[in-house]
Specification:
- There is one protein chain.
- The chain is built from 4 helices and 3 strands; from the N terminus they run E-E-H-H-E-H-H.
- Helix 1 (about 30-55) crosses helix 4.
- Strand 1 (about 10-15) and strand 2 form a beta hairpin.
- The protein has helices at about 30-55, 80-85, 100, 105-129; strands spanning about 10-15, 20-25, 90-95.
- It is of the alpha+beta class and about 130 residues long.
- Strands 1-2-3 form a 3-stranded antiparallel β-sheet.
- The relative contact order is 0.24.
């Protein structure tokens, strides 16, 4: 919608000297969306792992820079997926070089990465729908 903040998972291409990457995910979802994503992880973590594996990713590749210190409300400290439930943002990053982005292979590289990220993006979207 025009003039509104987009709420949901998205792709992001960052190009800066010595810091280029393609990312997909949901940065700091609002409270309701965060609860829905955590619930989906709790109920269907196999689907999350399958979505990541479909693109040759794994859960350890999700950004760990935005974490709760304690378990989220409603989840125990011994939950088997606590490392995922403590995330406040759900993001995959693919570091890129300036050389790769300025080469003739840039578009195929980005398209391939985006396609490999799509199952993870779809998992997040289904969680909030």
């Amino acid at each position: 919608a025009e003039g509104r903040k987009f709420l949901g998972p998205a792709y992001y291409l960052h190009v800066e000297a010595d810091k280029c990457y393609l990312a997909v995910g949901y940065w700091r979802p609002d409270k309701d969306h965060l609860a829905l994503i955590r619930q989906e992880i709790d109920y269907n973590v196999r689907d999350l792992h399958a979505a990541l594996a479909a693109g040759a990713w794994d859960a350890q590749m999700l950004s760990q820079e935005d974490l709760l210190k304690r378990p989220p409300l409603g989840y125990s400290a011994d939950h088997p997926e606590l490392h995922l439930l403590k995330l406040k943002s759900f993001i995959l990053y693919l570091p890129l070089t300036e050389e790769a982005l300025s080469s003739h292979e840039a578009m195929p590289l980005l398209l391939d990465a985006a396609q490999r990220m799509e199952p993870f993006k779809r998992f997040l979207q289904q969680a909030i729908d």
